[in-house]
């Protein structure tokens, strides 16, 4: 095999994401079901930063939750690394998510009684008996990278912006290959928002991860290689640079 084939081979080992024809319906009360995602398709190569904007209620969080395997779609598929998520059992899907996905939830989903460091360590809770020193050091480093120095503080005592940064540190703890970030800078000032944008993009680059950013933050969206707008359940208007 020629030596020049090696980099391509290495690149092809990173998993890619393919979303095809997703349909999600929601029923509230006795009325007819509402179409929230209307045949949404999206292909994301390894290491790509994708930005998704769109009005409130457009289905952005719903889309991320389907991609993360937290919500079963009514139609369509999500493929990761060539395998279909919908074909996995619930337990296998939970394992897949734990091993591959870093999720920054719009409402953070922190455990308020646990400390900053304990929250960052949550994703590795099932990997080890006890917490290895290297993991604690890794968690402390992540806390520093998001600018949190109150490591023993209860998560519930933090400001909203601090909680958002903690949620991001936790999502990055396992060096995920797929980072799904739902409004990751919504509670941050411009300076902290830019810093968090840098961190997410750096971490994606370090791990050749795909990064999906749902955001209203124009400065953050401008850094995405692929940009979309979700409106009325349809993913529109790709702008690629
Ligand atoms: N569990 C649910 N049951 C019924 N409807 C729901 C449920 N979750 C979300 N919806 C509806 O689905 C639609 C899309 O919601 P979603 O949270 O995905 O929007 P979004 O684009 O993330 O909005 P925002 O920018 O405000 O976060 C909304 O109309 C919402 O009311
Ligand atoms: Mg949302």
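Sequence proposed for the structure above (241 residues):
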């Amino acid at each position: 095999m020629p030596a020049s084939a090696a980099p391509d081979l290495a690149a092809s080992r990173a998993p890619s994401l393919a979303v095809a024809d997703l349909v999600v319906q929601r029923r509230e009360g006795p009325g007819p079901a509402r179409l929230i995602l209307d045949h949404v398709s999206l292909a994301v190569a390894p290491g790509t930063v994708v930005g998704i904007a769109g009005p409130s209620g457009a289905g952005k969080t719903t889309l991320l939750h389907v991609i993360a395997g937290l919500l079963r779609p009514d139609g369509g598929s999500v493929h990761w690394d060539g395998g279909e998520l919908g074909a996995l059992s619930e337990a296998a899907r939970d394992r897949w998510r734990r091993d591959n996905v870093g999720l920054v939830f719009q409402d953070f989903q922190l455990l308020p009684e646990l400390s900053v460091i304990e929250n960052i360590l949550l994703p590795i809770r099932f990997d080890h008996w006890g917490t290895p020193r290297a993991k604690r050091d890794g968690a402390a480093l992540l806390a520093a990278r998001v600018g949190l120095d109150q490591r023993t503080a209860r998560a519930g005592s933090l400001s909203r912006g601090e909680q958002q940064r903690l949620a991001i540190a936790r999502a990055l703890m396992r060096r995920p290959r797929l980072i799904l970030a739902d409004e990751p800078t919504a509670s941050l000032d411009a300076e902290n928002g830019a810093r968090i944008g840098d961190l997410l993009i750096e971490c994606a680059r370090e791990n050749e991860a795909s990064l999906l950013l749902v955001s209203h933050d124009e400065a953050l969206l401008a850094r995405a290689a692929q940009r979309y707008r979700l409106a009325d359940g349809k993913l529109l208007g790709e702008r690629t640079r």
